[in-house]
Write a structure and sequence with these properties.
GO terms for molecular function: ditrans,polycis-polyprenyl diphosphate synthase [(2E,6E)-farnesyl diphosphate specific] activity. This protein is an alpha/beta fold. The protein has ten helices and six strands. It has a six-stranded parallel beta sheet with strand order 3-4-2-1-5-6.
Amino acid sequence: MIDLTVLQKIADALHFIPFSWILFDFLKDILIAILTTGPAPKHVGFIMDGNRRFAKKKALPLKDGHAAGALSLISVLETCYRVGVSDITVYAFLIENFNRSKEEVDTLMTLLRDKLKYLSLYDDSYARQNQVKVRIIGNRSMIPEDILEDLEQVEQITNVELLLRTLNVCFPYTSRDDIVHSIQGVCENGTSKANIDVAELYRNMYMGPESPQLDLLVRTSGHTRLSDFMLWQCTHNCKIEFVSTLWPDFKFIALYSILLKWSYYHKKDIMNHRVNNTPPDKVVDITSLPAPPPFATVTGN
């Protein structure tokens, strides 16, 4: 597993040196420019794990750990969109989180609502300035009415057809619930048994058919499980990365290393596919050629 926390902390510490941010931004621009010369994933998913452990490690209130995680999300969005990622999906709240204490559930919901409003509702907000469409993905029947009203307002404001960037916020969500929702949709549509296939189920899932196939899934904090997140979308073409870094510490350096690795191996896979599918050189069988013309000379001898 990748853990570049120490390197990121060194970079963060150097930011306190006067005007050092100019150098770091310059280096970041160069690194991103290098990455854009190769292929980039179109759809990236993140399991944002480690906020509670971060708060405990820093002896901070739990809400401060989640707030630090929200700041990391901004950094991740900026880098991903700059290298060419069009769709980002984040696991903000799984349905089983309702089993946590009421205080923590209320904190998570309020923080999510406030951060999405901050990202979207104002003229100078991140989503407006960077042309990002925000979508709430999950079982809306479980969201309190006051929270849901604000989230749907965020969706409505950022729902512009010409926008090429999308942020899918899974809240509340599990893959099992997503599959059940799809099957229920198929039944409600009256689809005949003969017409039920993988494509039909995909069309009825929370994300809908307009969402591209998942190319890369990243989970932070060291756990090596998917926790019921996008199981349907994790096909053989999706690369999965487990990193030891806690989500609040997951910033440019850790993300860049993952994107660079994906780009390198994806390009390598493309080259191998071309080589393996190149038709062999055509071999001519001499015996199959037509007979030569009869011998003749210009002198008539």
